[in-house]
């Protein structure tokens, strides 16, 4: 009984309720429906709210236990739900006696005794469940942000090939709205001619799922809403939720890359046709020359000399076509991809990203410029268009300036150490000296590791000028040293490092033009030293070009 006298039967009921309430871990209480005054609470429930015993809660206004204010309007709504449903539940934040809060699940059940209406209240603490819910909500928010901000198409499908999720980038790529793709079959994004093969690939993938690129060795195409086909690259992955497996596809539109590759192929074809045309023209010229009577041995020698030069030119062009298709591809691809990405960074906060890609473009263009300069230098050398232009120079100043110039391409913590012995002023060509030293230093930097030392030494004694460049890099094998100064030749241990194989050939030719010779000392893994020796001329000597 909750009020008035207590009969034997009522005493039994009261004892039964007390027994249940005593061992219950959650709050169990009873309060009047009209006044919301607490008339009964179990001991565990009192402790849940920070009270030592139930007496501390008897007579209190039940809504005061909640963190938020409960007004008459809300009480009337609760009463209406109790009347229509017969019970009421809600999640609410409650206040402990010490002012701390916790989340609880409330259930109210009405009953009456001797004409008085009461509410049985049960409150179960659900802080852990609430934390888990908030954590899950946070994870979902991060996932949504990742999907929305990704600059690559993301499509998730189930085992039945039904699309369950598409990110905004993919929707824009394919020209759809979100509700036009979700729940649709993946085939709507695949050209009709590939449907049959795709079914087999899909079944095979789910039978043996693994993270991998899709269509290795094959060209892949996708289909836009307007029916346009376009080339794509796709990477596949899987994940499982509640024993259900999903496939996630990362899709990139490679239309621009394909076009660039096609342009390079066209360029190569045009160059090959030009070489063939020149070869045919040369063959006709040779045929005509062979039909002519050679009047003198001098005329015959001149013709053969011209023929040899033409053959060398054709060989140079042929090697250029072969090398260009390989060496130009990487920097051109870098320029293309960075230019494409620059279009995406339109906000002020993207400046750092823009600078990164601009730097990549500049580096790639400089690489292409160096390659073309090497070819131009070889061409001028072969045509005899380069002559030394001598002047008095201060050798230590020139060398130091050149060392400072290559500082930007040094690897991390690399050092270049320079020393000079003898008279500091010589009669020399500064431009050719710069080309020679820049080539040797570039190679030393390229083929030496981070933190290594590179030594440069110059000596002027007895009208002999000596230049030494020594590194502790990967070295050159004895077999490779036999062909080191040939055009286009590259050592077998540098195949994975970019280069044209022309640098040392140019160094040799310039050294010979300056009345000098070059010697290489090297062992694999122990570094390389180049020693260049020049017999110095004087300003008044007649054999010096100006």
Structure characterization notes:
The strands form four sheets. Strands 6, 7, 8, 9, 10 and 11 form a six-stranded antiparallel sheet that branches. A five-stranded antiparallel sheet has the order 2-1-5-4-3. A five-stranded mixed sheet has the order 13-15-16-18-17, with helices on one face. The longest helix has 37 residues, at 255-291. Residues 1-6 and 540-546 have low confidence and may be disordered. It has four domains: 8-126, Beta-Lactamase; 150-253, Beta-Lactamase; 258-382; 391-535, Heat Shock Protein 90 (2-Layer Sandwich), CATH 3.30.565. 44% of the residues lie in helices and 24% in strands. The protein contains 15 helices and 18 strands. It is elongated, with a radius of gyration of 43 Å. By secondary structure, it is an alpha+beta fold. It has helices at 8-23, 43-48, 72-85, 127-149, 168-174, 178-181, 195-207, 255-291, 297-327, 329-342, 351-382, 395-405, 430-446, 478-481, 503-513; strands at 27-32, 38-41, 88-95, 101-113, 116-125, 153-158, 163-166, 212-213, 220-223, 229-241, 244-253, 391-394, 415-422, 425-428, 453-461, 464-471, 516-523, 527-535.
Number of domains: 4
CATH superfamily caption of the largest domain? Histidine kinase-like ATPase, C-terminal domain
Helix count, per DSSP? 15
CATH fold-level name of the largest domain: Heat Shock Protein 90
The amount of beta strand, in percent, is 15-25%
Low-pLDDT residue spans: 1-6, 540-546
Count of extended strands? 18
Rounded mean pLDDT is: 77
CATH hierarchy, class of the largest domain: Alpha Beta
């Amino acid at each position: 009984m909750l009020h008035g006298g207590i009969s034997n039967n009522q005493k039994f009921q009261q004892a039964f309720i007390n027994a249940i309430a005593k061992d219950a871990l959650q709050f169990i209480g009873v309060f009047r429906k009209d006044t919301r005054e607490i008339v009964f609470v179990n001991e565990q429930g009192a402790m849940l709210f920070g009270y030592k015993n139930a007496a501390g809660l008897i007579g209190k206004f039940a809504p005061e236990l909640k963190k938020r204010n409960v007004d008459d309007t809300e009480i009337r709504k609760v009463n209406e739900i109790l009347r229509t449903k017969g019970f009421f539940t809600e999640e609410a934040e409650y206040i402990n006696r010490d002012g701390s809060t916790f989340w609880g699940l409330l259930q109210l059940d009405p009953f009456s005794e001797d004409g008085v209406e009461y509410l049985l209240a049960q409150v179960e603490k659900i802080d852990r469940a609430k934390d888990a819910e908030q954590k899950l909500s946070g994870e979902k928010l991060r996932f949504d942000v990742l999907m929305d901000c990704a600059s690559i198409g993301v499509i998730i499908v189930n085992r039945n090939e039904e699309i369950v999720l598409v990110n905004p980038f993919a929707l824009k790529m394919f020209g759809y709205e979100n509700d036009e793709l979700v729940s649709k079959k993946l085939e709507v994004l695949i050209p009709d001619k590939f449907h049959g093969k795709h079914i087999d690939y899909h079944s095979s993938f789910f039978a043996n799922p693994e993270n991998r690129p899709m269509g290795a060795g094959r060209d892949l195409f996708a289909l836009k809403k307007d029916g346009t086909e376009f080339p794509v690259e796709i990477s596949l992955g899987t994940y499982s939720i509640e024993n259900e497996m999903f496939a996630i596809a990362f899709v990139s539109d490679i239309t621009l890359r394909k076009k660039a590759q096609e342009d390079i192929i066209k360029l190569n074809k045009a160059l090959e046709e030009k070489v063939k045309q020149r070869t045919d023209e040369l063959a006709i010229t040779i045929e005509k020359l062979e039909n002519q009577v050679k009047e003198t041995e001098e005329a015959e020698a001149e013709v053969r000399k011209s023929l040899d030069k033409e053959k060398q030119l054709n060989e140079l062009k042929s090697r250029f076509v072969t090398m260009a298709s390989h060496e130009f591809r990487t920097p051109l691809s870098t320029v293309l991809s960075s230019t494409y990405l620059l279009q995406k960074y339109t906000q002020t906060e993207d400046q750092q990203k823009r600078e990164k890609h601009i730097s990549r473009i500049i580096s790639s263009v400089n690489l292409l410029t160096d390659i073309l300069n090497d070819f131009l230098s070889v061409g001028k050398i072969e045509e005899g268009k380069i002559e030394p232009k001598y002047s008095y120079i201060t050798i230590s100043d020139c060398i130091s300036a050149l060392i400072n110039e290559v500082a930007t391409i040094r690897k991390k913590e690399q050092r270049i150490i320079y020393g000079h012995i003898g008279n500091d002023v010589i009669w020399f060509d500064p431009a050719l000296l710069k080309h020679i030293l820049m080539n040797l230093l570039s190679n030393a930097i390229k083929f030496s590791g981070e933190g290594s030392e590179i030594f440069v030494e110059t000596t002027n004694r007895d009208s002999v000028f000596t230049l030494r460049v020594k590194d502790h890099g990967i070295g050159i094998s004895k077999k490779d040293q036999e062909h080191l100064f040939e055009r286009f030749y590259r050592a077998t241990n540098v195949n994975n490092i970019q280069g044209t194989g022309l640098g040392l050939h140019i160094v040799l030719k310039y050294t010979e033009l300056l009345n000098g010779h070059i010697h290489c000392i090297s062992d694999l893994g122990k570094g390389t030293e180049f020693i260049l020796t020049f017999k110095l001329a004087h300003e008044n000597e007649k054999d010096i070009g100006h």
